[in-house]
UniProtKB/TrEMBL annotation:
The keyword Transmembrane helix is assigned to this record: yes
UniProt keyword Cytoplasm, yes or no: no
Transmembrane portions of the chain: 34-52, 58-76, 96-125, 131-151, 163-185
UniProt xrefs under NCBIfam families: GGDEF
Reaction(s) catalysed (UniProt annotation): 2 GTP = 3',3'-c-di-GMP + 2 diphosphate
Protein name: diguanylate cyclase
Enzyme class: transferase
Organism from which the protein derives: Marinomonas sargassi
Pfam families associated with the record: GGDEF
Domain GGDEF: 229-363
Keywords noted in UniProt: Membrane, Transmembrane, Transmembrane helix
Length: 366
């Protein structure tokens, strides 16, 4: 039951923009769509209410507001967002003003619904729409005062009706405020996640980028020192990668890099971390593993790359290989950079000794 409702709500809130859209004005769009949705629902409730208590003129008014709301909401569909933004407060103000002045009266608190318009204006209008925003803030405040001082008494309502109206206003204000805050917060969270991905992920391979992997290296290194657990760093370099670029083009080189990254990642244990160090170089950080086991793991990764045929866009299949240098931290290591330097030396040996192989820091001491 919950999911269809959520799905439908999301569908209506996302009207007028594509999924995955990351523009700055998305929370404004959500709030505009939500406001129209709520406006539509409240007009419908009032339409039924006025029909029920035989107030045909007010029922017709509600019907007209519903229609106009529907037309204005369509502006979002058609990409005329500014029109939709501006029409909502006009419709809503006219509704609150007319119903308060001529039916509900100020003692039901109906005119407090101007607060919804004020919240809407603050959230929805951008910095370059200051004139419209302050115009709406001013006219809503004025509308509130007019209702407060010039409303007729709500003669048509019984005491119970007045109480119900006060409850309706309270519920609507609370629901509107909390939903707008939730929409803005969830949007901020989504933007935050998006920016964090941009800052931490390498676009081509989808792996962590150099900044993130080195930050993690620092954290993992410190935790290993603190807990006296083993930790191995590997530097991995694709062999003769320049040749791939020179023979098949830079785009093909990009494709090979992305596919190689995905094969490497799938060869690792869940607790291992891999990131792109730069160009065709990668770093792997392995926790709670000894050097002998890490050599086995890295050889498995090397073989899975060697045995994979990578298909290029023109269906040409090529195979590539990796050279890997490994180093572990020990009691004499005080900074993670020292482990990286040792892994780099081991990588140099692997390259020097024919490539497509794994070397450790111990080999470079021989
Ligand atoms: N397509 C593509 N190429 C890149 C990227 N980053 C670095 N390269 C290329 O990677 C190549 C690295 O070349 P070299 O450093 O000579 O290394 P290599 O050809 O792999 O030779 P060895 O490492 O000695 O086996 C250069 O041609 C770079 O232009 C990238 O993001 N995309």
């Amino acid at each position: 039951m919950y999911f269809p409702i959520q799905k439908t709500l999301e569908k209506y809130l996302n009207i007028g923009f594509a999924k995955g859209d990351t523009g700055n004005d998305l929370n404004q769009k959500h709030v505009v769509n939500f406001s129209y949705l709520l406006f539509f629902a409240s007009c419908l409730v009032l339409l039924l209410f006025f029909s029920f208590i035989s107030q045909p003129i007010l029922a017709v008014f509600c019907f007209i507001w519903m229609l106009m709301g529907g037309v204005a909401w369509r502006y979002c569909y058609k990409g005329e967002f500014t029109r939709a933004q501006i029409t909502f407060p006009i419709l809503k103000s006219s509704k609150v003003l007319i119903l308060c002045l001529f039916f509900f009266g100020e003692e039901t608190g109906f005119h407090w619904l101007f607060a919804n318009i004020i919240v809407y204006a603050v959230v929805v209008f951008r910095g370059d729409q200051k004139v419209i925003k302050y115009g709406i803030l001013f006219s809503s405040s004025l509308g509130f005062l007019v209702c407060e001082f010039f409303s007729q008494s709500s003669l048509a309502l019984t005491e119970v009706g007045k109480s119900l109206c006060i409850f309706f206003v309270f519920f609507k204000l609370t629901f509107h405020f909390t939903t707008v805050i939730t929409l803005v917060m969830s949007r901020l969270n989504a933007v935050n996640l998006y920016l964090r991905n941009l800052a931490e992920k390498d676009e081509l391979t989808g792996l962590y980028n150099r900044r993130k992997v080195l930050a993690e290296a620092q954290n993992i290194f410190e935790a290993s020192v603190l807990n006296s657990t083993p930790c191995i760093f590997a530097i991995i370099d694709l062999d003769y990668f320049k040749k791939v670029n020179d023979t098949y083009g830079h785009d093909a080189g990009d494709l090979v890099l992305a596919k190689a990254a995905s094969i490497m990642k799938s060869a690792l244990r869940p607790q291992d971390l891999i990131g792109r160090y730069g160009g065709e170089e990668f770093i792997v950080i392995m926790r709670n593993i000894h050097i002998e086991q890490s050599v086995i793991l890295m050889n498995k990764m090397r073989e899975s790359i060697k045995n994979s045929q990578i298909s290029l866009r023109d269906d040409t299949e090529i195979s590539i290989s990796l050279s890997i240098g490994l180093a572990s931290m020990d009691s004499s290591t005080s900074r993670y950079e020292e482990v990286l330097v040792k892994a780099d030396k081991a990588l140099y040996l692997a390259k020097h000794n024919g490539r497509n192989c794994v070397y450790t820091e111990m080999d470079s001491l021989l």
